[in-house]
Amino acid sequence: MKVSIDGVYKSFGHTEVLKDVSLSVNEGEFVTLLGPSGSGKSTLFHLIGGLMTPDKGSIFLNGEQVNGKRGLISYMPQQPSLLPWRTVLDNVLLGQELSQKPEIEKGKDWLRKVGLGDYENSYPSELSGGMKQRVAFIRALLSPQNLMCLDEPFSALDELTRLEMQRWLLSIWEEHRRSILFVTHSIEEALLLSDRIYILSQRPAAVIEEINVPFSRPRKEALPFTDQFVAYKRHIYDVLKHEV
Amino acid sequence: MKFRVIWKKAGAVFLLFGILVIWELAVNWTDTPAWLLPAPSDIFSEAQASYPDFFGHVLSTIYLTLLGFLIGSSVGFLLAVILHILPKIRDTFYPILILSQNVPIIVLAPLLIIWLGFGILPKIIVIGLVCFFPVAIAALDGLKNTSSELKHYLNMMGATKYQLFWKLELPHALPSLFSGLKISATYSVMGAVISEWLGAKTGVGVYMTLASSSFRTDRVFVAIFTIMLLSLLFFFVIVIVERIFTKWHTKGVDKSESKH
Ligand SMILES: Nc1ncnc2c1ncn2[C@@H]1O[C@H](COP(=O)(O)OP(=O)(O)OP(=O)(O)O)[C@@H](O)[C@H]1O
Ligand SMILES: [Mg+2]
């Protein structure tokens, strides 16, 4: 699974939001988009998801142009967006249901694996924020599409839960590498999780720098305190500071 | 604390009982003649006495109510779905829906009999006209006001319009639909009685007309209480069905209430 975005432009009326954005995600790679608020990261996701078409430029999936085609990616939004009338298990299977027959056993397995086995038949209103995000992530993971697009999935969580969820995501992802395109505001989150980072400019967004993250996997818990990590963090901070 | 719980559960019953007691005492005290206002005890004994004859009327009203309610709310629901799927038609039709409720039933019913005769059809139309409206409006609102966040997720995942309807809009509309059904259920009994006033052989409405034209006020009250009881019963049946279909909803509400 390889995704590449090639010279994409998008405007809403007179506001130019994306200006010549090009990037790619390789098979099994974790790529992060880092950019100021309102720069157009979600808009880029909507283009990849096919909700809108780019004004100019192309989106390729495995070499095939897919501008405006829907149902080709799996998606995890900022809010967990679980259906309140479905049990946790039925929610987890929703992504599959849209395009194939749901694999119930697999859903149960995953819930057990992430410590939600006892909540299979509970409703979302009975879960905590972190648990809901876990369910939303498993739902995205079980969806058959190969590319997962995660739009600031942890930004609504408190700091501690957020750290816990980052470790949790890392451990799962490092075991079952899927191609992930991840959006975040947090420099630290980007460095901790990704293989590569694209830094976007203020609106209209363009890629101003691409960073290859050198830290080996599995990533250690003490990683954020190493000198190298801090040096990268400072560098990205400087780049973004020039933007804002 | 305990008293409050009992009051919450049975307060309405106490209140009703209190009103009946005051009514009874007032009638006895002022010596009101029974044809003007019978005492509750008189109404109760009349109900017991005329029960064998009255029961047939009740059954026929229940039958008519159920039939009218089922047809009326089905039409209301289907109309809501069609208008929801075809939003262009919705804006044209919505005012007509509202206008349909401004036709006085009392005037319309005799006309229906002239047009359609004394069969069951005009009666069903009268009940349906009363029932379809709350269901249609409630279902339309429920279908329209889906959470934009959930809709966005399903769209991003490539859900078709069909999937969006069955997996999101319809289940989301259920609580609202049931609110409409509760109103319709309550009205449908009245609708049935009105439709019976206009040429039926049996039914609580017929019994009521006979009773009032022969100044049997006690029997009129038996009929009134029966209508109330039927409405209440019907309402609770809907509540029970609602509980079964929207378990998640009541559960969520319970939780948020206990947080406060
Ligand atoms: N459907 C739309 N119509 C008009 N303008 C839009 C639309 N969607 C987004 N925009 C505009 O595009 C710009 C980028 O929005 P977008 O949501 O992509 O930003 P973002 O980078 O995801 O921001 P954040 O990090 O705060 O989520 C904003 O200025 C927004 O007002
Ligand atoms: Mg965004």
Summarize the structure in words.
Chain A is an alpha/beta fold and 244 residues long. Helix content of chain A is 34%, strand content 25%. Chain A has 2 domains: 3-73 and 147-241, Rossmann fold, CATH 3.40.50; 80-144. Chain A has a 6-stranded mixed sheet, with helices on both faces. A 4-stranded antiparallel sheet of chain A has the order 2-1-4-5, with helices on one face. In chain A, a hairpin with a 2-residue loop joins strand 1 and strand 2 (15-25). Chain A is globular, with a radius of gyration of 18 Å. With 260 residues, chain B is mainly alpha-helical. Chain B has a domain at 88-248: Orthogonal Bundle (MetI-like fold), CATH 1.10.3720. The chains are: A alpha/beta (244), B mainly alpha (260). At the A-B interface, helix 1, strand 6 and helix 3 of A face helix 7, helix 8 and helix 11 of B. The structure holds adenosine-5'-triphosphate (ATP) and magnesium ion (MG). Residues 41-42, 151 of chain A line the site of magnesium ion (MG).
Keywords:
A: 244 residues, Rossmann fold, 6-stranded mixed β-sheet, 8 helices, 25% strand, B: 260 residues, mainly alpha, MetI-like fold, 0% strand, globular, disordered C terminus, binds adenosine-5'-triphosphate, binds magnesium ion
Shape call of chain B: globular
pLDDT under 50 segments of chain B (min length 5)? 252-260
The N- to C-terminal Cα distance of chain B equals: 17 Å
Oligomeric form of this entry?
A: heterodimer
Distance between the termini of chain A: 34 Å
Q: What percent strand of chain A?
A: 15-25%
The CATH architecture of the largest domain in chain A comes to 3-Layer(aba) Sandwich
Identify the CATH homologous superfamily of the domain at 88-248 in chain B: MetI-like
H and E string of chain A = EEEHEEEHHHHEHEHEEH
- The CATH class designation of the domain at 88-248 in chain B is Mainly Alpha
Topology of chain B as a string of helices (H) and strands (E): HHHHHHHHHHH
Percent helix range of chain A? 25-40%
